[in-house]
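Lecture notes, continued. The same structure-token format from the folding unit now serves as the input rather than the output. Read the line below as a description of shape only.
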């Protein structure tokens, strides 16, 4: 099962982003397909935080359009909401130690642990995820 990163959803959502066509096309095929896929509510919250931020986008997105986007992603029966499990925090700390995570890499370690614990392939545009042993990851295709 695949699990997309915040950056993939931001690019899929924002038509003015550099990788919009790639990410939107990939995400549309995932949502319309028959294969099971995961969505993390934390990733959705991160996407909303970024696209509504006036310091990131000259014309930030509205909450209503964000809500509609999130509902479209989570509505199909093949979508599974992915939450941290009982081992997540222990795995997160191990990821931080193994990658010597600091600053922004700490949240990457959190998401890496989420994907590993759920048995998902993490789909991202961020190559920093290569630092996390045991994480199966790829890019939108």
């Amino acid at each position: 099962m695949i699990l997309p990163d915040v950056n993939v959803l931001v690019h899929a959502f924002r038509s003015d982003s550099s990788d919009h066509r790639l990410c939107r096309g990939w995400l549309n095929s995932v949502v319309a397909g028959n294969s099971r896929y995961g969505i993390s509510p934390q990733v959705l919250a991160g996407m909303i935080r970024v696209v509504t931020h006036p310091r990131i986008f000259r014309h930030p997105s509205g909450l209503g359009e964000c809500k509609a986007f999130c509902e479209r992603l989570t509505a199909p029966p093949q979508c599974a909401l992915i939450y941290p499990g009982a081992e997540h925090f222990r795995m997160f700390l191990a990821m931080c130690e193994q990658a010597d995570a600091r600053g922004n890499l700490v949240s990457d370690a959190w998401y890496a642990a989420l994907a590993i614990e759920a048995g998902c392939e993490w789909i991202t545009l961020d190559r920093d995820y290569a630092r996390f042993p045991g994480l199966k990851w790829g890019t939108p295709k």
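Point for the exam: Helices lie at 6-13, 20-32, 41-51, 63-74, 88-99, 104-118.
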